[in-house]
Fold this sequence. Notes:
Number of helices: 11
Largest sheet: none
Structural class: mainly alpha
CATH topology: MetI-like fold
Shape: flat
Order of helices and strands: HHHHHHHHHHH
CATH architecture: Orthogonal Bundle
Radius of gyration: 26 Å
Strand content: under 5%
CATH class: Mainly Alpha
Number of domains: 1
CATH superfamily: MetI-like
Amino acid sequence: MKQTPGSHLATKQQPVAFRGGGFAPVSRPWMGFVVFAVLIAVLEAGTRIGLISALTIPKPSDVFNTFVELYRSGLLWTHLVPSLTRFVIGAAIGTALGVSLGIAIGLFSYVRAGLVPLIAALFPVPKIALLPLFVIWFGIDEASKYALIAFGTFTPMVVATYGAVDNVDRGLIRMGQSFNLAWFSIVRKIVLPGAMAGILSGLRIALAIAIILLVAAEMLGAEYGIGAYILQAGSLYDLERLFTGVAILSILGVFVNSAIGLIEKRVLRWRG
C-alpha cells in the first residue's frame, strides 16, 4: 500500500506528557505520619538499648502512658481548656488588629509614613521580655496573658499583611481602575484576594509565636495551663510529664497548621 508523505510522520507521533503543572504541590499527608513514626521508633529503640540516656530523653512509650493517665484523670482538660482559651482570645485580638492595620498601611500613604517606623521599632523587641511589664499594666490574671499573646501576634501580622498588599500585581489594579471600578471594589475583588496568600503565610508564623508566648505567660502566675504543667514537671525533674506537655504543644501546632492549610485550600482555590 502506497503511503503519503505525511502518513509516515503520523505513525511515529508520541503523546507528550503535560509539563505545565506550575510546581503545584502534590498532597501526600501520609508522609508526615511516616516521618513521625520513624522518629518515635528511633527514640524508643535508642532509649531501650541505652544509646540515649533516660536522664535526658524518656522513652516515647512512657510519655504516651503519661498522656493516657493525664487524660483518664481529667487533668488534661483542666490544663488544656485554659490554654486554648488564652490562645484563641489573644491570637484573635492580635490577628484582627494586625491585619486591619497592615491593610491600612498598604493602602494609605499617610498611614504608611507614620506607622511603618513604629512597627519597625516594635517588631524586633523580644515579646517574652515584656511579660513583667504586661503584668504591671494588666495584673497577673488573664488580661496580661491575653495582652502578651495579642501583642506577639500583632506585629508579625502587620508586617506580613502590608508586605502582601504591596506584592499585589499593580497591573490588575490599573485594569480595575481602567474599567472604572470603585475604590472599595478594587480592594475587595483585587487587593485582598491577591494578598491573601501572604496574609495566611504570616498567620502561620504569628500563631507559632502565640503558642510560645502562651507557654511563657502561663509559667508566670498561672495555676492551670500547659505552660504551668510543664513548669511543675520541670521543677520536679519529671521528664515524662515534661515531654508530655511538650508533645501536647506540638500537637496543637500541627492542628493549627492543618487548619490554616484547609483555609488556604478554600480561600486560594482560584490559583488552581
